[in-house]
Amino acid sequence: xxxxxxDIARKAGxxxxxxxxxxxxSSLISxxxxxxxxxxxxxxxxxxxxxxxxxxxHRSQALGxxxxxxxxxxxxxxxxxxxxxxxxxxxxxxxxASQRDPQREQTIIHAMRQHHVDGVIIxxxxxxxxxxxxxxxxxxxxxxxxNQAAEDYRYSIYHDDVDGSRQLTKHxxxxxxxxIAYFGNSDSGRTTQDRLAGFRFEMESCGLxxxxxxxxxxxxxDPEKGILVTNHFLGLSDRPTALVCFNxxxxxxxxxxxxxxxxxxxxxxxITGFDNIIFSDYTNPPLTTFDQPKRFIGQKAAELILNxxxxxxxxxxxxxxxxxxxGRLLIRxxxxxxxxxx
Amino acid sequence: xxxxxxDIARKAGxxxxxxxxxxxxSSLISxxxxxxxxxxxxxxxxxxxxxxxxxxxHRSQALGxxxxxxxxxxxxxxxxxxxxxxxxxxxxxxxxASQRDPQREQTIIHAMRQHHVDGVIIxxxxxxxxxxxxxxxxxxxxxxxxNQAAEDYRYSIYHDDVDGSRQLTKHxxxxxxxxIAYFGNSDSGRTTQDRLAGFRFEMESCGLxxxxxxxxxxxxxDPEKGILVTNHFLGLSDRPTALVCFNxxxxxxxxxxxxxxxxxxxxxxxITGFDNIIFSDYTNPPLTTFDQPKRFIGQKAAELILNxxxxxxxxxxxxxxxxxxxGRLLIRxxxxxxxxxx
DNA sequence: GATAATCATGCACACGTGTGCAAAGGAGCA
DNA sequence: TGCTCCTTTGCACACGTGTGCATGATTATC
Lengths: 342, 342
Prior knowledge:
Chain A is of the alpha/beta class.
């Protein structure tokens, strides 16, 4: 049987409301009673009941975090950032993975509403606007990370993927490449769109055309997909000399596929990734990629939502609705000038 | 203002206890009132308050999951398994990372006790026995995964690392290697011990000696450590021809280190990993490793703890306290017979 | 010295749900 | 008709915490 404030009250010879106030460091209670109560609380090993507190105050000291897939090094690094900030602010984390399944998404929403989370961070690109409205409708603030429709949300954080994609493309162009293709992912919402848009934009502004068959997109991000798609690009009569990949996972797979076909990277073929997941530095050759501040993004998302929680009581509205974070180009060894004959 | 059972009661013209019972499908309530109540509950969009329910029943429908580090592909795959099972049983997940910091561990324990989790899964090797007793002391069942002292716990799950390490070592011996070294991790508790033990055991049972400088252990598992340690092994006068690495992360780093020194793997040097994380198949050459059923381990851990929760009411004691799961040897391209001159 | 002002504390109730017990209503039976 | 038994429902209270309000004690003011 756990210790309650009533137990403390009995032991200290006061009433339980006095204990409640004392532990909140209320100015109504005299310093000496506070001290007495704190000591007996410590002695008895008191721990407040989150359930009772949450029932009364409508605050749970818990945040919900929704991912499409936890088992993804990109997301787990974001999660790490979130967790750090949450823990240092004494917030607990409810975590769930939607697996892009609408059924599960609904289940998750219900679970989080039932558990009365104070706020929600959505890191799932597939989460629709109307789904997330189920939170805001009940006064639960949400922050979305890299969502497909960041602008539709009141608060969101995303990485400037257009910029990243442009920088990668520009790097290849500067190396002398002219026939550059794009290997994309089709189901990551805004990320899908922005990375392709950045590629196209940079190509066009350099006067380079992109034939339709230079764009290849498919759902999912297993490296295995990369291997499968190798054939497509290598089979083209106007074979590209360089490839911009949607992310590191796909690039890693593509790299393996190219090497299985006997191509030397980067001498015969250049390839870029995106995200700078830890393994992109351990491929052979190491991947040229775009470093996205993943942990920082997680931290910012957590800080933003915690500010919102305080704001709702203090009626302070944060000045900024949308935060755009910038990354940096990371030139490693998977890119080089195209072969001489081109 | 969320809908409560009282709102339903008012709308349906009954008392709130009747609603409570009806929604629990109690046999005390007539079928037609049940139907009426269910319909109005649906119409009003009722969602039970976990706080109130938990306060009354002392069950929260939530599990705690403690990791040392979330940003680790090995653990996140286990987490995925846990999440799947939990979600399908309508349990939510409280998640926290200890970062091997005793202070944070204590904070996590408090947070989880406050939130009244029904059970805890500990995937952190650094979690001490006495720490976890804080849970069992208050009747919260715990399941530990791959813990250093699995036998001390009432319920635990672990992978047979001794067996895995033996099989890897045996594979190298069968290829003809005699000078085999071990590159380990020093802060993963039982895993640390078992993998080294398996290596030693197999070497000895084949009559091969292991000089002290053939064993190198350090804390942490960043691939970067692998690079740093390359010098140690390559600098030895009796240089080994093969290396058994604690896990894939370190092996991936070591592989890069070897290649930076101009060594060809596997022609001049063989190397093995452990765990079969997804990237071990995408190094060049792909890593020979030991496939551990990570997701399955997570699923089993979640199932075990859910059984314990039911058992505590039904007074059924599970027959098995400790589950040992087996993996399988995965021979890829990072291992080959030693060079001819040896 | 009487009154007002200030401080510290306790009483009572609320949050939303679940459950023991009593009670009301109907059916069955002698 | 009177009794018992069963079904269905409501009443009252509990879970642990927080807060408005009243109360009692102490000090300040004229």
